[in-house]
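Still learning folds. Look over my entry:

…
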Amino acid sequence: MRLSYFANEQPFQRGRTMTIQRVNYLSWLLKLVAWDGVIPVVVLLMPTVVDQLFPNRRGAMEFTAVTVPIFAFFIRFFVAKRHIFSNQCTGLVRGLQLIALCLAILVLLLIDSLMILAHGMAKRAMFATNTDLVVWAVLIALYFTCMAFAMFPGRTEVLTTVEWRDVDSLSHN
């Protein structure tokens, strides 16, 4: 009689090929941090570009604060949707990832708009009080939590050959 921790466990044989499922954490981290490429840089540089093209035109900055984040939203949505549908998750999980993605990039739309509008404000106006810092921390935490779930790549299967030296010592009669 063979002792086992698992009721359905089959005894291992020498040179047996097994399928192991693993998460590629490095790929997940890279997707989480850099999934949208240069869009954040473009959004943050947009107020400077608008100031150079339209000096002393306050309406131009407000127009930029509304339109640029909306364009960035749609670009981010289509890029991230490709990442989600190329992962190794089930259809249900992909649907939930799409919902998390939409929530995350809506938060990012708000952050982008505020950062563009902050260009015309006094320095540190957006972070003047502790309450401001808490609001920013909550927004950023909500964004990264949703994106961590949305960019989860799923488990990939890796075939490996297992060599067991003491197979006979595991079997008890």
Notes: Residues 1-24+154-173 form one domain.
